[in-house]
Design goal:
Structural class: alpha+beta
Distance between the termini: 57 Å
Shape: globular
Strand order of the largest sheet: 1-2-3-6-5-4
Low-confidence stretches: none
Number of domains: 3
Largest sheet: 6 strands, antiparallel, barrel
Strand content: 25-35%
Helix content: 25-40%
Number of helices: 14
Mean pLDDT: 89
């Protein structure tokens, strides 16, 4: 049994009611990706007051023996995972509420006096990233000891002026057999002036940086909170309002999209390009969908990649006026005339044909939308994206396209196990298409990536796509 990190009595607020002095045990993550956990033990009266809350907030204080404030624990959003009551008799019962906090904050007050102008230092806690991990070398000595030398610590300054230094901090755990284990966890260290001391304001810029890093590494990396401190207090924030990616222990430099030697140049160019985009939300959506965050099936992975491509093309449509054929005024008049034509046509003019007309009317809006095929061709031409060596997205001249596969999957059809390898091949080609498109938009050279022709040429999936296409085309 693990020992709790804190015990205290705190207030629970759910909807419009607050229940005070609820006993709580706080268990903090032992590893960065572990969830923090709150175990509440309300009395019978408190249980009745609480009801069965799905979402609630908490606030509690811990004071020393002299009554001086020592620690503040709070969370604005806690979800109830379990709420159970065991009745031992007429006047004896135990209640247990297990809560998962999404934004747990723990502030420890120091006895030291703050000068008010001291800098705040700290570190953001990150999931593993092969691109951001410090490079170290081990040197054995004749005494049998080993010295550790850092040969690289990446530093990067965000557009808001925050400089991050990436390093490993080591944690220690005591196992049940008495052994102690240590392990490194990736952090981004920072130092800011006291007037800019709220790390919450840095989360969005850090998320964008990590998003581009994840794309380059083909390995999702997210920020799960931080620790900050100055002379007067230490604050820890545990962030669980985001999806935590699967941690791939076997991920190597051979798996990355960007070659390790080019990463610093890539992230500088890509980040500077990204912050200039007007439609950042669309680019974010596309990048996140292109990153494999642990999707469970081949079909879901394929659809996510195709959605990423559609989102990139949508951004291009909006920026270049290639979404609609007619403008709003022209389309309004044309649609009105078209409805009149349909209603007067012999196939739809009978009053009994009202439902048939309605079905046709519902499809009219599609007439004014430039086809994805045409928009995609314009998109590739505008950015000079060379895809001639890959499985076609929209060109049906020689068989089924990647777009056809998407349409079949999204409508619930399947290709059968016999065509499974062919579908995997299609997914890989779609991934390379999305990667080449994204790299070009971000201003990076495709030939300096693992989506380049010369680096793909030795891969079976790259070379056998015509055969895979023929198999899927036969199935229809």
């Amino acid at each position: 049994m693990r020992k709790e990190d804190y015990k205290l009595r705190l207030s629970i607020t759910a909807e419009n009611r607050t229940v005070d002095s609820v006993f709580c045990e706080v268990y903090l993550p032992q590893r960065v990706a572990d969830p923090p956990e709150l175990l509440f033990h309300p009395t019978e009266h408190q249980s009745k007051e609480l009801g069965h809350p799905f979402e609630f907030s908490i606030y509690g204080e811990i004071k020393d023996s002299a009554g001086k404030l020592w620690t503040v624990i709070s969370a604005d959003k806690v979800y109830c995972r379990e709420f159970s009551t065991t009745q031992w008799g007429p006047d004896l019962s135990d209640a247990l509420l297990v809560g998962d906090p999404f934004d747990l904050t723990i502030t420890t007050i120091s006895n030291r006096h703050s000068e008010g102008n001291e800098n705040v230092t700290g570190s953001f806690w990150l999931t593993p990233s092969i691109m951001l991990s410090p490079v170290k070398s081990l040197t054995p000595l004749y005494t049998g000891e080993v010295t550790l030398h850092k040969t690289r610590n990446l530093m990067f300054t965000l557009f808001n002026g925050l400089t991050l230094t990436f390093d490993h901090h080591y944690r220690y755990l005591n196992k049940q057999n008495g052994e102690m284990i240590s392990f490194p966890e990736l952090v981004a260290e920072f130092e800011v002036s006291s007037e800019k001391a709220d790390p919450r304001s840095f989360l969005a810029p850090i998320d964008d940086f990590l998003m581009l890093t994840s794309f380059a590494a083909r390995q999702a990396c997210v920020c799960l909170g931080w620790e900050s401190y100055n002379a007067s207090k230490v604050t820890r924030f545990f962030r669980r309002s985001i999806v935590i990616p699967d941690i791939k222990k076997q991920h190597s430099f051979n798996d990355t999209l960007i070659l390790p030697k080019d990463f610093q140049d890539f992230i500088r160019i890509a980040y500077n390009s990204f912050i200039q985009f007007d439609r950042k939300d669309l680019i974010r959506q596309a990048v996140y969908r292109a990153i494999d965050g642990g999707r469970q099936t081949l079909e879901s992975d394929y659809l996510a990649l195709y959605s990423a491509l559609e989102t990139l093309v949508l951004s291009f449509r909006l920026d270049n006026g290639t979404e609609h054929i007619l403008d709003g005024h022209e389309w309004h008049g044309f649609k009105k005339d078209t409805k009149a034509f349909i209603k007067g046509h012999p196939l739809f003019s009978n009053p009994k044909d009202k439902d048939r007309r309605r079905l046709v009317y519902q499809k009219l809006e599609e007439l004014n939308r430039i086809s994805f095929a045409d928009a995609f061709e314009q998109f590739c031409k505008r950015y000079d994206i060379d895809l001639g060596d890959l499985w076609p997205v929209v060109d049906r001249k020689d068989g089924v396209t990647l777009g056809d596969i998407r349409n079949k999957l999204v409508h619930g059809d399947t290709f059968g196990r016999a065509r499974w390898r062919a579908l995997i091949s299609a997914r890989e080609h779609l991934k390379w298409i999305v990667e080449r498109s994204m790299l070009t938009i971000l201003g990076w050279r495709v030939h300096d990536s693992r989506a380049a022709k010369d680096l793909l040429s030795g891969m079976t999936m790259y070379n056998e796509w015509q055969h895979s296409r023929e198999l899927l085309s036969k199935e229809g």
